[in-house]
């Protein structure tokens, strides 16, 4: 039996394959519902401890991940886990870094790079992916 998010729950993005991933801001209250089974946290410093398995990706606010290869591996792990788990991706505010990561997940799921930011803005948050650098990161994100 797979464990997944409720498709209409706050912050949940449905990728074209049907995978569900929750994006959120850590500065906001935790949404109602079950906890994630795995979380990827995109912060400049180590996140607080959670009661579920996590992975931290060093990613300063308004910038890009400090290790691009680690970022690619972490995002691939999230995409794979989202097939059967409740996975969340979060940064402090839930828009820039989280939106960028979600757009990269959309690329992994088959959305063309040049359409991924629009996909996330339409299906997750209109102001996701905040900076030019973040948009370029998605445009150049490699699935290989």
Automatic annotation (TrEMBL):
It comes from the Bacteria. The keyword Acetylation does not apply. Pfam families: PTP-SAK. Keywords: Hydrolase. The keyword Protein transport does not apply. Residues 69-123 form the Tyrosine specific protein phosphatases domain. InterPro entries: Prot-tyrosine_phosphatase-like, PTP-SAK, Tyr_Pase_dom. This is Protein-tyrosine phosphatase family protein.
């Amino acid at each position: 039996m797979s464990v997944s998010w409720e498709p209409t729950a706050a912050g949940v993005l449905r990728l074209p394959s049907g995978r569900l991933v929750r994006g959120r801001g850590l500065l906001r209250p935790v949404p109602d519902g079950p906890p994630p089974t795995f979380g990827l946290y995109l912060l400049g410093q180590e996140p607080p401890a959670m009661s579920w398995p996590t992975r931290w990706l060093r990613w300063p606010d308004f910038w890009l991940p400090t290790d691009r290869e680690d970022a690619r591996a972490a995002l691939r792990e999230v995409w794979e886990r989202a097939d059967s788990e409740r996975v969340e991706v979060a940064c402090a505010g839930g828009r820039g870094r989280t939106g960028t990561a979600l757009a990269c997940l959309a690329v992994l799921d088959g959305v063309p790079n040049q359409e991924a930011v629009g996909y996330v803005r339409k299906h997750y948050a209109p102001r996701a992916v905040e900076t030019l650098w973040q948009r370029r990161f998605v445009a150049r994100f490699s699935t290989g």
